[in-house]
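Figure S7 source data.
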Amino acid sequence: MTRFGHACPHWRMLRLISRISTSVQRQREVHRRDLCIALRCSGSSFKQMAQRPNGETTAVLYRPPPEVRGMCSLDRDAFTQTIVVPALRVPKLVLNKVVKSLKKATIQRPGVPRVVVPEKKKKKKDGGGEEEKEEDDDDLRLVLLEPGLAGSFTEAEAEALRSLGVPQELQYYDLRLTYSNLKTEEVLGAVLPEGQEITSAFSRVGHIAHMNLRDHQMPFKNLIGQVIIDKNPGVSCVVNKTNMIDSTYRNFKMEVLAGEENMMAKVKENGVSYEFDFSRVYWNPRLSTEHMRVVQQVKRGDTVLDVFAGVGPFAVPAARAGATVLANDLNPESHRWLQHNVKINKVASKVRTFNLDGRDFIRGPVRQELPALLKAKASVHVVMNLPALALEFLDAFRGLLDPELCGDANLPTVYCYGFSKDDDPEKDMMEKASESLGFSLEGRCSVQFVRNVAPNKDMMCVRFTIPKEVLFSTEGKQTEPEEEPAPKRQKCEETTD
Ligand SMILES: C[S@@+](CC[C@H](N)C(=O)[O-])C[C@H]1O[C@@H](n2cnc3c(N)ncnc32)[C@H](O)[C@@H]1O
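Tokens for the predicted S-adenosylmethionine complex:
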């Protein structure tokens, strides 16, 4: 067992490494000594004092004690230490003005006050001798300064101090720095093996933070989760998603690292509320801009046909914008939450929901609705956001409608998503969509970059009006959907979507 009361596989080795590698501590001591010497120089002018330490020195100064390296179970007390920081003695009368003028030079630490009451000093008897009485410091306060900036006020700051009659003489102050004063990266950087990547990145879904930890971080997974909770107000559960999505429904396999095991998320996206069980449906906070981009193209009276609707981030806002919506998802759980979100956003009268395979949704409800919609003036938008597969589903539009209906049809606009690893993702998307439709979209579509999901892998959106030649084609004419369609299973995909 260690002093942290938790045996960790690499603990002994890491402890040894941290003992051998004392350079950080030495650096810290050198800086402390320099700062103390410089600041104790009685009577010396500010400019004669310490060389301004650089940002790196400051980072070293704030670095937690080396003993925390390799800690697997969070011991917050082990991060406590006392460091020396520069300070200015400022009369209370001008305190606010000084703090305002030195805004950038004052200490910037979470939970550390910029102004403190100085410790009472003992006054000596004339000619030395015994201490007699306490000096009257009641009218003074100490303004704590950022150690990295000590010794170099800007011209404007120096001028402000002069005009307020505050001498530029630095004091030193022993600052007790605790776990709560450290940033996430500082805590994790001190704990995780030296030289290895520390990632504190996570996506936020309501109270849930979800991370994608690397192998070397796994021994520290629970500590990392706890630090994320401590440092991010509102996060009460941290999950790690496994590297692959292997489910048809695009939800991640996940493990709770810290906090409550409550997967019921409540989120707001573009002003719309959604509720769902995050462990059972697909939700990606990084798509909010894309959801908004598409919904902005929908006008009152339009119709939106959402083939892979999830819990409703296209369907619900489109209905709120005044469109009539048919929204579908194969995952019964997504469908349930889609219905719930339609209700809580009070658009139940505008949205019909379906729990079908996408191809059957197109060949069934979409096929039924389209003839009437093609005669009307309002636009029809088909949204297909299942980037790993949606392009393949475009073949469902081939020969969907009876050629007799083909007149001056108001043809639907499709927004179909896909991933591309190609050097020319626009061309790649156009070609894949054309192949699936059996008709060239060259010069008839626009392709939009959505986001980079992995190195060399982009999520793209191809937008086009379904060609008459496809919709009313007599080749490969569509029949009614089978009674019990077998859902097409997906290949494994990276968690990037
Ligand atoms: C990438 S998510 C997109 C969800 C939502 N549109 C969004 O933007 O957040 C794809 C959705 O398609 C659903 N899905 C997967 N395969 C499907 C299929 N064959 N037919 C219909 N829906 C399917 C999944 O359950 C998931 O909710």
